[in-house]
Amino acid sequence: MNTTKKRIGIDARMLQEAYSSGIPEYAYYVIKNIILNNPDYTFVLFFNSFRNVSNIIPKDILEISEYKIFRIPNKILEWTWRFFPYPKIDTILKVDYFFSPHFYFIPLSKKVKKVLTIHDLSFEKDKRYFSFRKNLWHLQMNPKVMAKKADKIIAVSRATKNDLIDIYNIDENKIVVIPNAYDFDTKSKDTHNNDLDTLRKWSLETNEYILFLGTIEPRKNVSMVIDSYLKSKLINKKLVIAGKKGWLYKKALSVLKEKHPDIVFTDYITNREKEALFRNCYLFLFPALYEGFGVPVIEASSFGKSVVTSSVSSIPEIINQGALFINPHVTSYYTKALDLLIDTDNIKSLTPDTTKQDFIQWKEVAQKTLESIVL
Length: 375
Hints:
The longest helix has 14 residues, at about 25-35. Helix 1 packs across helix 17 (about 360-375), helix 9 (about 190-200) packs across helix 12 (about 270-280) and helix 10 (about 220-230) crosses helix 15. The two termini are about 20 Å apart. By secondary structure, the protein is of the alpha/beta class. The protein has 17 helices and 13 strands. It folds into 2 domains: about 5-180 and about 360-375, Rossmann fold (3-Layer(aba) Sandwich); about 185-355, 3-Layer(aba) Sandwich (Rossmann fold). It is globular, with a radius of gyration of 22 Å.
């Protein structure tokens, strides 16, 4: 009897990012849980970067997998592959299946089963969300062609699935919806000291600030966050804008050139700091213009926090309690919501019951992903 394990290749280049958030975080938890919980398969990870990324790639991933790290400049490699799509990476890795947690272009042979996760099509719906350079990158990656060639596509929400059908004309039977998760199991144990350190760092007090978390870029609608806050009655509380700087961050934060001591910009934060900020905030404000999923909304809800967020794209489908859904294009609507929530009784009535929430776990996401790969 042949007992040779089936081999699954994974494009793990997302794990080369220095700061883990969004899609890199998704890639990390899915890859880690797939490998740890499926010893009957051999997993082979593909990395490539001209710079030395061995100290950036999470060590716990490298310790549990086979992997190949190539040292070719990515821009040269990707442009070369456009005109000469060789070598086929699945043949180098000697795998039976290949999974891509994001649409990085990669040449694969026809014989290997290809599974691709697409998180959103925001770059197709409105190119103003991205810089010229990023739009050029999307053009170069050509996700539509990758989606057409994939045997199976994982969409992180029904909204993304619908966009794939409407914009790329993908057969709906080829798409499986597997929602993102939130890593509940890694919440800090020493919450008291951790919270004190974090609050002191930015001169904050428990329940005395409104929180926004996300990359500072046009799609996240940070200007709306600031404008609605400044016009609201909740001006007596601080506003914390947490997240790394993205495209056009200076424009979004231009108001901070003036003196607004009650608006705090943290820049990139660690997971421990993120937990402390969520745990101690008064409410979470997230008026994103478009989200393939919207993990911060789930994170806020898991900490029992009321959420004021967008009524568009995927967000209404991922949270069913503790949220006010508002048109993200109208500042006055958000201002009125904040005015209502100055009343603590209104906040209490909106606060989600964490004991009744049933969010998917990363282990389950990983298992459903594996089923999509091998079945």
